[in-house]
Amino acid sequence: MEPSLTNSLAGPHIVPLPIVRYAQGEKVVPIRTQQRSATILPNFVGLKFQVHNGKVYHDVTITEDMVGHKLGEFSTTRKRFTYKQSKNK
Hints:
Elements: H1 5-10, E1 31-33, E2 48-52, E3 57-61
Parallel strand pairs: 1-2
Antiparallel strand pairs: 2-3
């Protein structure tokens, strides 16, 4: 499926996030955000984000495969369905 003309003209949705580079050996503090629509950029690779799903924050570590996708794709908003177990009597 090809992107629509308006999407290709608009470009990526870039949100100004506070990106802090840490020296090697320093403890990395994840960046908390509610911007699920933010596009993952190449300079985010290796950083840790906490993405809000509407209830809690999910930890997401950015890899090279995620570049170009949205942050919200990696934090599910719905509960996973499980069948109820019944007791055998």
